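Take a careful look at the sequence and tokenised backbone pasted below. I need to know what the token row says about the fold.
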Amino acid sequence: MRVLLLGASGFLGRQVRVLLERDPRVREVVCAGRARLDLLTADVPAVTELLSSVRPDAVISCMGRMTGGPDELLRGNAGVVAMLVEAMGAVVPSARLVRLGSAAEYGPTPYGRSVGEDDETRPVTAYGVSHLAATGLITSAAVDGVSLRVFNPVGPGLSQTNVLGRAAGLLREARDDITLGPLDALRDFVDVRDVARAVVAAAFADLRGERVFNVGSGRAVSVREAVGLLARAMGFTGGIHEVAAGSDRSGAAPWSQAGITRAEKVLGWRPVHGLAESVGAMAEEG
């Protein structure tokens, strides 16, 4: 297979690229960066031209927006998928499209229960709405598309747009105490390397008619516990205060836990890295 990888330089894309380049089923990985085509400002003819030149057997999109206003988020998440779906339908209709969605598509979920792919989606943030729109384009399109609802990815290379990434940055620079937002929410943290494995699995698997898959650890952990694990891994002994503003992206969702049965059965995928291993890898980067 020839695979076109978009967003190869990002947190998730870097790990996907490593796996693709080692995979004997892949004869070529084409990484189209912004210098070649900036999907945030491109149009359908430009995407069509790129696909015509590459002629991929699979397109993997690891790009998107995590911050910005509703217009920016819709453009960066749903708009990019809309262009890919339209261009692929015209140029490579048999190619598979894999895109990364978000647990934010579900919105608040019942405390103590894993959320499944067929459960109701009620996003309460523009970020979640933009990803749900992108998933809707995948499920309604004529192309062979897959949307992976990624929960809270962590591990090496994590940026400070994520609470553990912010914590890691503060911990590295701290002389004594650090200040974060509220840490009482429970989140499903999944290692970025496991996410990459799920992406590659989705690119090759017989999907059995399924289009949407949760990618998480299947276990909710308090953010406070996760930050504590990270602090210990980094040898930090100061205080951690919870008085700063929290992230808008989490949006009134105090509990999040992925049901991963579908990914296990259809993709043959399970996470193999525990949270302690993930934060350990983050600590080693310092």
The chain has a mean pLDDT of 94. Residues 2-154+190-216+260-271 form a domain with the Rossmann fold fold (CATH 3.40.50.720).
